[in-house]
Each structure stands twice: as C-alpha cells, then as structure tokens.
Amino acid sequence: MQLSGGQSEPTKVAVALELMFLFTVLSIAPSIVLTMTSFTRIIIVFHFLRQAMGTPQMPPTQILSSLALFMTIIIMGPVIKNVNEEALQPYLEERIGFKEALEKAQIPIRAFLFKHTREKDLSIFYSISKETRPENKEQVSTMLLVAAYTISELKTGFSIGFLIYIPFLILDMVVASILLSMGMMMLPPAMVALPFKILLFILVDGWSLLIGSLVNSFG
Q1: pLDDT tens string 89-112
Q2: Rounded to an integer, what distance in angstroms lies between the CA atom of residue 115 and that of residue 187?
Q3: From CA 104, how far away is CA 152, in angstroms rounded?
Q4: CA distance 24 to 19
Q5: pTM above 0.85?
C-alpha cells in the first residue's frame, strides 16, 4: 500500500503541472493570437485602410477585429489541423505523453513562423539576446522566433498599408487641385474627396480584392 501511494504522488503532481500549464496557455491566448498567427498583418492593413479612406470610425473596430479573427482561423486552418492530428488527439487518447505532445505541436507552428519571418529580423533578436547563433532551424529558440515573426509581420503590414494609401492619396491631390483652381479655398478637400473614395472602393470591389490579396499573401 505504501508503494502504491508513493507511485501515485508523482502522477498527481504531473497532472497538476499539466493543468497549470494549460491554464497559463489559456490566460495568454490573446497574446498568442496576436503574435503567432496571421492576425497581426490583417488588423494592421484594415486600420491603414480606414485611415486612407478618411473614415477612422467606420467600419467599427469590433467588426474589423471579428473579420480579422475569422480570416485568421481560415488561414491558420492547416496549422491547427496538423496540431490537432499530430499532438492533441494522440495526447487525449493517451498514446503520447504531455512533453511529446508539446514538442509535436510546435513543429507546424514553427514551420509557419519560419515561412513568414525574415532572417534579418531573427538576427536582430539574436544580437540583442547575445545568444549563440543557431546552425540550423531546429536550434532556433521559439521565443526569439516569435519576436522576429512579429517584427516581420509589422513590416509586411505597413508595406501593404503604404500601397493601399497611394490611390486614395492621388484622389485627395486631384480633388485639392480642382478646388484650388476653382478658388474654393475654404472647402476642406478631405470632405469632398470622401464620397469619391468610397465610390472608388465600391467600384473596384475593394473588400473582396483586399481580403483575397491578404489571404494569398500567406501562400
């Protein structure tokens, strides 16, 4: 009886640690969504679009965030499927241990992060942390990879936002030139250009074009 009780104690401790780890992951789930998925790029582009069109409050932030979240689920679908099939289901069926499940879950996630992370950004964080440079991808720290991925996504999002700004900026300049030539100095060009921006966005089917381009940008 003493032996059985002694053996059960480590098992209880291991289960408690696993539960604590799972609760910790759930508590930082919003941060994981923001820094390890396609959400970052999408939401940045959406906010650039609002500023470029001159409608900073429309569409509402809640709608854009919800749309970005649904797009993230679609884009990350293959990664989620791999994690579920290779790590989560085998663990729930008790075919593999917790540690092995965690290692297998990292494989598709790290592959996604590597695909969209610039080597220069990863090098910057290795310089900051002063860690030994890895010889291959397997030696790259997941924490530094996530940080580098976030920086890469910020740059990509700003690059796409710049391209979105160009046609609307040209329209603003055309409207301002016309108003200046007509002597309407007191009429704000942004107010006159706004309906034309909205019309332009509707005519080119802007939402379908933008969302399709964002999804394709993740390959």
Answers
A1: 776 777 777 777 777 878 888 888
A2: 49
A3: 25
A4: 9
A5: no
